[in-house]
Sequence to fold (544 residues):
Amino acid sequence: MAKRHIPLILFAAGLTTCLALDLTGGLDPYVAQIVIYIGINIILTVSLNLVNGYMGEFSVGHAGFMAVGAYAAAYASVNLLPHSAWFFPLALATGGICAGLLGLLVAIPAFRARDDYLAIITLALLMIVKSAFDNLPWFGGPQGFYGIEKYTNLSWVFVWTVLSVAAIRNIVYSRFGRAIIAIRDDEIAATLVSVDTRHTKILAFVTSSFFAGIAGGLFAHVIQFINPRTFSLVKSTDILLMLYLGGGGSLAGSIVGATIWTLAIEFLRFLGIWRFVVAPVALIVLMIYRPRGIMGGRELPWLVPRDYRKE
Amino acid sequence: MNLLHVDNIVAGYGPLTILHGVSLAVDEGEIVCVLGANGAGKSTLLRAVSRLIPLAAGTISFRGKSLARVRPHQAAAMGISHVPEGRGIFGNLTVAENLTLATFASHTSGAPRVSKVYETFPVLGQRRGQLASTLSGGEQQMLAIGRAIVSDGDLFVLDEPSMGLSPLFVKSVFSIISEINKQGKTVLVVEQNATMALSHSHRAYVLENGKIVAEGTSREIARDERIKKAYLG
Fold:
């Protein structure tokens, strides 16, 4: 058996397990729900990592793109598409594409100036998105959007999580991804070696938004009810926390950060409202002793393409 | 036709004008140096040439084509290889990745030129898999010049290549510049180390407060009493 088939076999095994658990209901629904949240959070964190970690920009609007993905996917699956789980991927794609288009709309002006103010622009975007869903007539306003089928299950989350991590990995280790890292290190020098930095930044931002939209679609179809408050700045902050907990510029960091944070919030439930004090304090302590996150920018070897490992 | 023709340019940063009508010309195959004290506008001149800063007036043309509407990454793709002040190394990429990124616009691997760089700078070859941030200052300067070699531009624009290097290293950097020139590349270099720059260039300009105050062959400039006093000590 060739070594290069191992990821494929692991993927098949993982998917088979998820399918079996979904069909038999062999996993406690509460546990399954947590696993699904972990997967969604990994997608959110890995995609934000492309912009905030690898490219070194600072976006705080990830929850906004997640919101657009959630609403668009939910609207598609409730009002536009036949009510069948078979059309779920189409609903998700709608969410991802809408979020990606919004990303393009934001990125074009945001990366126009040399000194960009991405943090402020994405903060404004988050507010606009939230008030749009509060006020537009088609999405239920502040009461939220009801009646979403529960299409998200372990298998879909597994497939999309693997797909997102694989896609971001392939981007990061491509020529385009190397240009993204060059921009973080020295933007002017990147320009001087003929990298179109504006174009590169826009493309990275749109990719990141697309996957946030996918995560939003998955989220809407597990929680079955979304309202604008769900996608506030607190949600964006959560994603930022998971990213910097694991460490920017590392895929393994995003996976570890998202997993630990999701579990911590769950296990600290007995603390009631105090968990939102304890968890951030724990994060501050971590930042003092490990300022570059748990992984410190390093990568697990199996997340690095083969021809990079040799060097 | 000059390879590079800078005609009466006015440029600066926002409301601050640094260059007050600078003109210079570089012919194919030349090494031209621009001398000047700190703050004379040397780096600003190079940044204008590679289109990093806009022009308030005047024109720059490269191979007879106006650079007025050219963006910096396009200027790089057209063949202007600017090695910036402070080298502009990508510390989170390996030495090899730093070099291959120089072919970004041309979509080629640049492999033959990368191996040529390893021949010219054997130490870079030994460290090809190492992150560029782990290189010493001198090695980073080699990498920056190596990147320009890989990009295969016709005009090398070098901003103070001797900065922060030991005297011995400065010598070898300049002999590499001469070597690159012999292989057919044109060089525009800005330097504070006037002795070194004048002995390795064909022609020189002297920049003072954003204006060219003297120009001539490097030999003439080196003999000029005023310049001797001001720059050669």
Notes: The CA atoms of residues 4 and 36 of chain A lie 28 Å apart. The mean pLDDT of chain A is 91.
